[in-house]
Design a protein that fits this description.
The structure is a single chain. By secondary structure, this protein is mainly alpha-helical. It has one domain. It is built from seven helices and four strands. Helix 4 packs antiparallel against helix 5.
């Protein structure tokens, strides 16, 4: 995907990446580098919390993690039951923090953009995330409901079978494009703002970076919540029954 946004006689390149060419394959190097950085931060954060966790006086980081975990557990318990799909809680939490850190890489200085930018602004990554989640959702639905899982394709009327199949197949696409579109728009705005005169550049840049933090957190939360909802739909409500 490529394009160009022009402003004030200058150009802001959209969808262009630093690339590696390996064995005939073209790899977006900036996406790989940024993804690795985000993953290392999340894993390091988890290992640090595991080493510093205490039942006495928890640190601010521990309180933040426990708050997020508690909210996710409540959502999973109320929608599908933790006992039915116990991996949904760590999956949703891992997705939330990984996407959050990935999105927040947008606050790095503009000079770093060639090598480090939000990897979620690359549709290749967001589609991989969306497809991976939906494959797990479909597999869990079949495991929990067996052959009855496929019954929802003909509900409420068998004539809706084609539409229900299409709706299921577009879920990974909408899940990925929602995240991709919002984060890409943020990177485009940063590029457009960068065309302003240097004397006033700091004000709109600072304001937009703060807004980017909010949008990045919101999109990470939406992705995690939709993941939970899709698992709930796939289990057909049997999760709550299995939890009691």
């Amino acid at each position: 995907m490529s394009g160009q946004v022009l402003a004030d006689g200058g150009g802001v390149q959209v969808g262009e990446h630093l690339q590696w060419h390996v064995l005939g394959l073209t790899i977006n190097a900036d996406t790989v580098i940024s993804t690795v950085i985000a993953a290392v931060i999340v894993i390091g954060f988890g290992l640090y919390l595991a080493a510093k966790a205490t039942a006495k006086v928890p640190s601010g980081l521990q309180l933040t993690f426990e708050t997020v975990t508690d909210q996710v557990e409540r959502q999973v318990e109320s929608n599908l039951g933790i006992r039915t799909a116990p991996f949904v809680v760590p999956l949703a939490i891992a997705l939330f923090f990984f996407i959050l850190i990935s999105n927040w890489l947008a606050i790095l200085p503009h000079a770093w953009e060639a090598y480090v930018r939000p990897p979620t602004a690359d549709v290749n990554l967001t589609f991989a995330l969306g497809l991976s989640v939906m494959i797990l959702v479909w597999a869990t639905g079949i495991r929990v409901q067996g052959k009855h899982y496929f019954r929802h394709f003909i509900e409420p009327y068998p004539i809706l079978l084609p539409l229900n199949i299409i709706e299921e197949l577009v879920k990974p696409i909408t899940l990925s494009l929602r995240l991709f579109g919002n984060i890409l728009a943020g990177t485009v705005m940063v590029g457009v703002i960068g065309l302003l005169p240097a004397a006033i550049l700091w004000a709109p840049t600072s304001a937009w970076k703060l807004f980017d933090l909010f949008i990045g957190m919101l999109q990470a939360l939406i992705f995690a919540l939709l993941t939970i909802i899709y698992f709930a739909m796939a289990t057909g409500g049997q999760g709550e029954e299995g939890a009691h």
